[in-house]
Amino acid sequence: MTAPRTTLALLLFAPLAFFAAFFVAPMVVVALSSIIADDGALTTAHYARILLDQYHWDVLWVTFRIALLTTLICMLVGFPLAWYLVRIVRWRAWRRACVILIIVPLFTSNIVRSFGWMVLLGRTGLVNQGLMGLGLTERPIRFLGTETGILIGLVYILVPFVVLTVGNALAKIDTAYEEASADLGVGPARTFWFVTLPLTLPGAVSGAIMVFALAVSAYVTPALLSGGQITVFSMLIFQQYSSVFDFHYGAALSITLLVLTLILVTVAGRIGEGRKPA
Amino acid sequence: MIARFLIRIVALAALAYLVLPLVVIVGASLTETSYLAFPPQGLTLKWFGVLFDDPSYVSAFVTSTLLALAATVVAIVLAIPASLALARYVFAGREAISSLLMSPLVLPYVVLGAALLQFGSAIGLARSFEALLVGHVVIVMPFVLRSVLPLLTPEQRALEEASMDLGATPVATFFLVVLPQIRGGIVSGGLLAFISSWINVELSIFNTSSALNTIPVKMFNYVQYTIDPTIAAVSAITIVAAALVIILLDLLIGLDMLSESRRP
């Protein structure tokens, strides 16, 4: 339906004005600031500094590698859990309890959850005690300050998003499709691969994109679990703004992270759309 | 079937993984030792007493709650008209506006926090409650939009038209017909918005100061230097609060969103 202009203007004025003032304008300020030198002239020096320094490439690589692995592991852990809750659990009360168990961490701050892992993954933490008790390792494994530690924490924080988006997609699928497939003599594995999975894919892709975007820009979890040993991109930005006070350079770093994230998210979104079930 | 058995094992392991850190924190907050111990050694509530005697914790708690409440209310007020416009009408720029309003979901919070600090310093808004508030509204609005938009269906539109045809004014129609139909979305979206604001660190950290602090930022600054039972006690409070809110919600509106509810 085409709308009367006045109705649209009335409805959209406040939200758009708010977003223009406190979202678009600040981002424009950052974008401009990233190409301005201290004396006010236009410059590409801040970006050159990022691109020409091997250190930044290393940090970017670590950041994106962690985000990709996080997304992958989240799918591997989250998909079975969603499947279990939607398709296997028959006892309503237990499913309800499980959903609550999945949402409670989501409603708890990243700090608290990362802090929990700091305690668990320490030299004398429960995880090392358990591994040594089972005889899997002789001496404590170092988790804190390693990528493994960061991964454990990030997957933990982000896996509920996958469970909820995939679970929702699975719950919406009419099981008649799968029954029809089975009636036509298709085995369960092929039914899963050719019927269920494509139907779940849009939900799974949107969950994965969200997880990836959050993992790339995560600050708290890597900061707490890296113990200062590993730097991810968001830490560079925070350092510039909070301790170095080089806003122009910080702005260039911000825009770099933003552009890279948006490119990857868009590409992933396209891939998800392109695979819609025929 | 083997596949089913494997899925069950992975799922139960994943559930244990989700619960473990929370159990450890709550347990560690009860220890009598002055260092963090799990399993706790002895049982005491003294670390919770330490918190309530510390005015800086109390004020951070109040700031966080007011901030989350204000951000949620503003986001709901802005999101309702926006969802009506987006769900109802086809117009030039509709897609662009929709992506703009949703983009905070994928935008790095650190980047937005930095932008608000830089922009805020220019217009005299930095490191104030207002600076925190506008940022939080921006990041929580997508949650409200996402839960309200799907409820504005053609069937809902038909009821609205019926109301208007019967002579109700647009305002009466909104409050008597539209609002009751999207209430569920407002409640669940608003709740997600409140929580996301209450637990946010990445955005808030740029605009907090020692005088104006939110509870998660205060905890973050503390945890980086010291781990002790006090911090476990603050954490335990937030975990128990989250669990109570969720159980309450489950009893009120039912959170069994993963069941095959589409079947009559």
From TrEMBL, chain A:
GO cellular component: plasma membrane
Record-stated family: Belongs to the binding-protein-dependent transport system permease family. CysTW subfamily.
Keyword Transport among UniProt keywords: yes
Keyword Iron: no
Name of the featured protein: Binding-protein-dependent transport systems inner membrane component
Membrane-traversing stretches: 61-86, 93-111, 149-171, 191-216, 247-268
Keywords from the named record: Cell membrane, Membrane, Transmembrane, Transmembrane helix, Transport
Main location as per UniProt: membrane
Localization per record: Cell membrane
Domain ABC transmembrane type-1: 60-268
Source organism of this protein record: Ancylobacter novellus (strain ATCC 8093 / DSM 506 / JCM 20403 / CCM 1077 / IAM 12100 / NBRC 12443 / NCIMB 10456) (Starkeya novella)
Membrane topology term: Multi-pass membrane protein
Domain of life assignment: Bacteria
GO BP, sorted A to Z: transmembrane transport
Gene3D superfamilies, per the entry: MetI-like (1.10.3720.10)
Coiled-coil residue windows: none
From TrEMBL, chain B:
Membrane topology category: Multi-pass membrane protein
Location(s) in or outside the cell: Cell inner membrane; Cell membrane
Any one annotated GO CC term: plasma membrane
ABC transmembrane type-1 domain ranges (all copies): 61-252
Alphabetically ordered keywords of this record: Cell inner membrane, Cell membrane, Membrane, Transmembrane, Transmembrane helix, Transport
Highest taxon in the source lineage: Bacteria
Ranges annotated as spanning the membrane: 57-87, 99-119, 131-152, 173-199, 231-253
Principal subcellular localisation of the protein: membrane
Biological process terms in GO annotation: transmembrane transport
Similarity section: Belongs to the binding-protein-dependent transport system permease family.
Protein name: Binding-protein-dependent transport systems inner membrane component
Organism the protein comes from: Ancylobacter novellus (strain ATCC 8093 / DSM 506 / JCM 20403 / CCM 1077 / IAM 12100 / NBRC 12443 / NCIMB 10456) (Starkeya novella)
